[in-house]
Amino acid sequence: MTWQVLVKKQRGASHVRAGSENQDAIASTPDIPPGSSMEWGLSVAVSVADGHGSPTSFRSALGARLAVEVSQELSKELIAFAAKGADWSTAKRLLEEKAGRQLVRQWRKRVKEALADNPFQEHELNLLEERSGSAARARVVDDPYQAYGSTLLTAVATETFMTFWQIGDGDIVVVDAQGRAGKPLQADARLLGNATTSLCSADAAQELRSYVAGTHAPLVLISTDGLANSYADDSGLLSFASDVMKIIAADGLEAVSDHLSEWLQTISERGSGDDIAVGILCRPAGIPAAAHRAGSHQADSHQIGAQHQTGTHRAVDDAERGRIEEDA
Amino acid sequence: MEGTKIGRLNFAIKEALPAMKDTASDNPNAEVLVRVVTFSTGARWHVAQPTPVEQFSWSDIAADGVTDMGKALSLVAEQLRMPPMEPRALPPVLVLVSDGYPTDDFETGLRDLMNEPWGKRAVRLAIGMGEDTDLAVLSKFIGHQEIKPLEANNAHTLVQFIRWVSTAVLKSASMPVAPSNDGQPGRPPVPVPPPPQPGPPNPGDDVW
């Protein structure tokens, strides 16, 4: 087996306080067996989605679940291509030519089915009107997809290529064998603050950003925006991804799995307060474990784990909580 | 702004502050910073430093001069540039309170504001005090057809509106939710709850 995959979902601190459900979703290929958070595979894929959670998007938790389902279907297609010997250029063509349209079409189809099974209830619409006004109610009745609004991100790693795609905010970080972290997908300058493009937008298919690479980094971290928004800037997120690889090098992915929930809880509490869904795709053979295990690195990796558990990790300490400036 | 009204505005802001602080403290994941621009003949920072709401106190402002609203918007625009603003932040809430017609180049000020990404992304609300307010200009500032300027025609209603923007809107703007516009331009970046219905004036209060 080449790849190991880990998935975790953490309810946001502000959602815990408000008593609202976790609106993030996560799914993987292969499926994670019950009672576990990890699995191995020759090829793996993780999708995460962040339901908008606004009063308008009152069914966005379901929208996010449907999003990861349809994205995993596309992932399986790509994995099947790879198994038949297709290279990265085939994957790139498939993504550029049809991925956006396919994902949005399939998502809308499932939303439509879900809505037919369970039409909007009067109390849902009344609550929306109470919170956002009658115009918001009219908009959702006219365009019910808004109620299910969600982002979508997916990372696929096969034996011959890696590919990533994304609609809306959230982050995909790749860490190379030297521990250097970077983001392969081009940033969308329009996504300022909590603004995001969405699967429910009329032009959602055109909003798909994708990237295909023929080479393999040993670690990919994929996350909804609750993680990155807990840091002042991207350096905090990149540092988190690099630290995760150091821990894997020292103690294996199991060590990350053991502590990730606590870390994410702390990060959400001290940072954005938002839900966080995180997937880690890891190729242990590509991680220079010996180098990381040598000398003080062993102690370092434990230290990093301890820092994350206590919420004193530098990046978290540096996190500037959301700012609102009220000018009169 | 005339003297009686400015006194009522000072009172309304002081009255709303405790509720604003309570609202902010309910959400430890958002750091609420407050600053204030005043405008009459010219515009100036009344509270220049972004001040954590828990440390914020209101010092009264006085009425004098004309209504240089455009200059005020340009001042705000300067501070919404990146930097000092950062790409990762919750949207600013801008509340414009006025009782008159701009006496300077309002359009230039608005253009300065809307040229800044955070100016465009700000939650912009406006309160007009009395019948002499230029509501068309306040609507232009808001820039969203579903949100109308709030018309405060007596002291009681002014308190209601100031309290609403300081609590309900603040709460909505500080939640980690994606915008209600779902990426569509021309809509507010956060869900704006419906404003309170204006109540009758308190006995003995002037109607503006």
UniProtKB/TrEMBL annotation, chain A:
Biased composition (Basic and acidic residues): 314-328
InterPro entries: PPM-type-like_dom_sf, PPM-type_phosphatase-like_dom
Any Pfam family hit: PP2C_2
All residue ranges annotated as the PPM-type phosphatase domain in the record: 11-265
Region (Disordered) residue spans: 14-33, 294-328
Name of the protein in its database record: Protein phosphatase 2C-like protein
Organism: Nonomuraea fuscirosea
Automatic annotation (TrEMBL), chain B:
Pro residues bias locations: 186-208
InterPro entries per record: vWFA_dom_sf (IPR036465)
Residues covered by region (Disordered): 175-208
Domain of life: Bacteria
Record-given protein name: Uncharacterized protein YegL
Species whose genome carries this gene: Nonomuraea fuscirosea
Lineage of source species: Bacteria, Bacillati, Actinomycetota, Actinomycetes, Streptosporangiales
